Amino acid sequence: MTLPVSASGPAPFSPEVGALRRDLLGWFDRAGRDLPWRLGDEGRRDPYRVWVAEILLQQTQVARGLGYYERFLEAFPTVQALAAAPQDAVLKAWEGCGYYARARNLHRAAAIIDEQGFPQDYAGWLALPGVGPYTAAAVSSLALGEPRAVNDGNVRRVLSRLRAEAHPSDKWVQEQADRLLDPARPGAWNEAVMDLGATICVPKSPACDRCPVSAHCAAYQLGQPGDFPAPKARPQAREVRAVALLIGDAEYAVLEKREGSLLGGLFGLPLEEIGARETAADALARLQARLGAEVKECLGTVQHGMTHRRLSVEVYRAEADRPRQPVRGAALSRLDHKALDVWRQRQAGLFGAALDSSPLGEA
DNA sequence: AAATCGGGGAT
DNA sequence: ATCCCAGATTT
């Protein structure tokens, strides 16, 4: 097994790095977060629990991931249980969490692990679907004690400030992280840097007065820690319009399994995007032809934002001689739940109107 | 290197 | 409204 330290030789002795390690790990031992995937001894954590947590937490804040984590582990307590489950059940347990390729890859990897056992080093983890450099470093350091430095959003921000580097490249961050990693406690060091970034060295208004390593921080000495790193330019969200059909009701409806990278594997209302030079009626006609449906009234419009697109969907009630399925058992995106809410609100409105006009409503 | 892939929290 | 979140994969 080849490690980054052996490839470039041991790092030269640096008193500054030693003091930084001591100060941050001392703080971590005192104030580190108590999280449900941190069961077991340091460097020997349960690989299944760590792996699931690392996948779940990709681009997902810890506070929000906690609930999903509990639900997912209850549904699939072991990698064998996960491997044996149908994909629909895995996506149902992932429902609402977003980035559903994570769940599909987790399921694929579970089958490999069920057959071959858990990988025993960084390279083995990296070879699994859905496992990139960050996750391989996290699992191999936390569960195997391997000296691999993680590079995530927290690490990038913390190191950018420590070195006052406003535009840290991914390569630069990894080099700095490799250099600072405490080879005696790699798992704890990785957890410590991420805890610092998540609770003290936060993006806006960092709490430098409570920071255990402010004495080592170049950005702090400059007096402008909040200026590091510089914000990343993000592409503007694309405007998308679509039409969808509700055939049935909020409990039993005609659902289609979505394919492709966007919400792939999830179920949802039959939907057609309105092309650039189209009207809603054009897309509706395609939907009507595809399903053999009779389109009725428009129930309302749903707005849904998804980082890289801004979605506006007109929901129509329709009738068709097609099998409906129970909505409760299927994994749906937030978008489709919003569409079903439109139906529910309309039903509530009609019920209220009926009460108002009913002779019994006065009683 | 840049785009894509969800959804929500914090400000 | 903007930026970000224990990133990975595809283009």
Automatic annotation (TrEMBL):
Domain HhH-GPD: residue ranges: 56-199
A GO biological-process term: mismatch repair
EC number, as in UniProt: 3.2.2.31
Reactions this protein catalyses: Hydrolyzes free adenine bases from 7,8-dihydro-8-oxoguanine:adenine mismatched double-stranded DNA, leaving an apurinic site
Keywords: 4Fe-4S, DNA damage, DNA repair, Glycosidase, Hydrolase, Iron, Iron-sulfur, Metal-binding
rRNA-binding found in the keyword field: no
NCBIfam families xref list: mutY (TIGR01084)
Protein's UniProt name: Adenine DNA glycosylase
Biological source species: Deinococcus radiodurans
